[in-house]
Amino acid sequence: MSTGTIILLGAFAGLTIFLGLPLVFLKQLPQSFKIFFNMLATGILIFLFFDVVSKASDPINAALDTVRTQHTGTGIFSLDVFLLILGVGLGSVGLVYFNRLVFDRTRTRKRTVAQAAGDASASVISTGATTLVEKAELAPRTLALLIATGIGLHNFSEGLVIGQSAATGALQLAIVLIIGFGLHNMTEGFGIAGPLSGQTVSWKFLLLLGLIGGGPTFLGTVVGIIFHSPQVFILFLALAAGAIIYVVTELLGQAKRFRAPEIVMWGILIGFLLGYATDLIVTYGGA
């Protein structure tokens, strides 16, 4: 099988994420369903967090074992740990500062527009209460973008695995990984669509979400075929883990205001099991 075919199949594995995105077009959903889909996304993300951390730990543990048994490789081990800490920090705390900057600019721009209009009703936009409402209206799109970004970083690492398997001649394993990751990415599409359920969303925005979440599988496949770098692998997994921590915190904050803990927990449980079940297919293939 040619390298070009592997790359195309890697792109297919990433684009299956679009199969889960049409969930957003379910209109007039009850609030309980919206919360359920949000928690479904949370469950998938919780599974992905443990998945990416365990995979990022594999090369670090290998480097530590080398230090322990051969008393060499301290520099590589230190670099790997540093990249893990850096990635998680940028993906979590970094997003806090980034979103604060974005929301501050949004509030300032809306306040300026309201003052320029000179309309009493428009000026209400600058009040604290309305600002909170606007922020809540922006939240579903913001959360969907953040989820897609975290999943995209995770999928880049999956693409690296596909590309590296093909580059080392393990074509059968690469094909199994493509099938498994393809199924797995479909459930990730549900996770991205969860916060947007019942919202009015354009096809262009949906296309953007799919490319952010699934496109990196293709890019990772290309990079994995060209060269092998455990450090790049660790960094992208760590970035994904940090982004997932941030997004899960946001989603759980929304769930806390909903007084139906059984719906919250069922959504998280089913989402976690969906992620785990599709990952078993990859494990069965020998990944």
Which spans have pLDDT < 50 for at least 5 consecutive residues? 120-138
Q: What radius of gyration results from the CA coordinates?
A: 21 Å
What's the overall average pLDDT, rounded? 76
Strand content: under 5%
Give a verbal description of the structure.
The protein is mainly alpha-helical and about 290 residues long. It has a domain at about 5-55 and about 145-285. The protein contains nine helices and no strands. The protein has helices at about 5-15, 30-70, 75-115, 120-125, 130-165, 170-195, 205-225, 230-255, 260-285. α2 (about 30-70) runs antiparallel to α6 (about 170-195), α3 crosses α8 and α6 (about 170-195) runs antiparallel to α9. It is globular. The protein starts with a helix and ends with a helix. The relative contact order is 0.23.
List the defining traits of the structure above:
about 290 residues; mainly alpha
